[in-house]
Amino acid sequence: MGDIFVTGHRNPDTDSIVASIAYANLQNAVGDRSYKPVRIGTINDETARLLARFGVEEPPLVKNMRTQVVDVDYDRTPALDRSVPLDLAWRTMRDGEVSVVPIVNEDGSLFGMLSAGDIASYDMQTIAENRVDDVPLFNLLSVLEGTLVNELNCTVSNVSGELYISLPQNFADPALTNPDTILICGDQPEIIDKAIASGVGCLIICRANLKPEWAEAGAGICVISTPLSARRVSRIIYQALPVERIIERKDIVAFHLGDYLDDVREIMLKSRYRSYPVLDEADRVMGTISRFHLLRPRRKQVVLVDHNEAAQSVPGLDQVEILEIIDHHRLADIQTSQPIRVRNEPVGSTNTIITSMYQERGIVPSPKIAGLMAGAILSDTVMFKSPTCTKRDIAMAERLARIAGVSLDEIGKELYAAGSTDGKSAEELFRADYKQFHIAEQNIGVSQITCVDADHLLARRDEFLKLMAELKEKQEFDMVILMITDVLQEGSHIFYVGNDETIRQAFNKEPHDNYLFLKGVMSRKKQIIPMLTALWG
What we know:
The chain is α/β, with parallel strands linked by helices. The chain has 17 helices and 22 strands.
């Protein structure tokens, strides 16, 4: 089985990133499965500062979870070198019960494809032919299970010539003295002596006693002894040809491990081949894939943390197998094909839930993981000032801080120092913690920026509103909202693009020029989304 990916939501915040790291760490500590934290968006400054503070690398970025060739149980077919004889290739295919094998260059890259049909077609052609050319001597010796009689003298590397079987009655045949002849004979000493003396190019001696003087044959003569019969030699000699001489090399369709199965399926439907080579990122052959491999592909396995809404999750979610969901938000629209474990609790941070899971399993997180989790709880509860914050959040954060040997006040100051907006565009600020929601046929985008001094952000009002208006039109949203949450003021400045009446009714306050301030509103999850949900039903 492959890795199990643990991922938070798009445009991940600190709670989302740390939850994926902490949960993967917990599962790897108690089991034999490979849990891998990943992210599906850019890490914000706050999270980057926290990760650097505890010396933890950010999870790798995954753009989507669509099923790829690497997820399929494709055939690990042996890849043969282009120089191997046809005989070896055929036996490999027969023993492996495969009809196609990849042929590779010395570096493992694809040279061509050899099919049983290629071998059969070539074999039929040999019926009408009586000649082989440039057969490597090594290949010939291997196929004939032979030994080189004049090994000390022979300088031949490749064998060519007309095939000729010597019979008792053709002693005087001129082919016996032709250098361009491959002479196959049995226990016929006189014929063998004459052939060697006349300089026959290649002499194959079948099931015969060898005379010592035959080992003294000249450098330009190849004398081979084989235990095979003359009849068998006459047929199998054609199988000594290197596979590179007969394989199909034109218009080869190959797929890479990273190719998406949707695309692979479309290409296969337009081609006629039974099997296709699979290549890695360096174009080395890894195996072969056929149409039947696409019938029941192995889906990527995923654990979702800090979200349970499809619009916030990884692209290609419909192609994965969701194993578990750990979250502290409202239940949304993600559906699964079979029952899964879901842990959803009304706390201020997903890391509070995961800390409980560490406790339940008797695992003490390392100081750096504990420090990360404490920082994530502080971040998601806005230093315990958010209405989503519970006594459990505070207790867990304090417990984690003791394990990590850090001060919560110190971490909190570092978190919001990381929230500096200097030099950032309005879009970078808006996208840092942005989520999409679908509520009662209404589509809405909500971004939240948390800071300790909102004045410099409020001064960029026009930039934000222009960006939000463009987003609303492009995504066809009903409303786009920006929360600028001021920790010191303990409230949020709200910019919005959408219907004024909706804002007026949802928050029972009169907006002015697409703006209003909501005292005590610190949480998107518990105070903004629920009010809109109640309004829209």
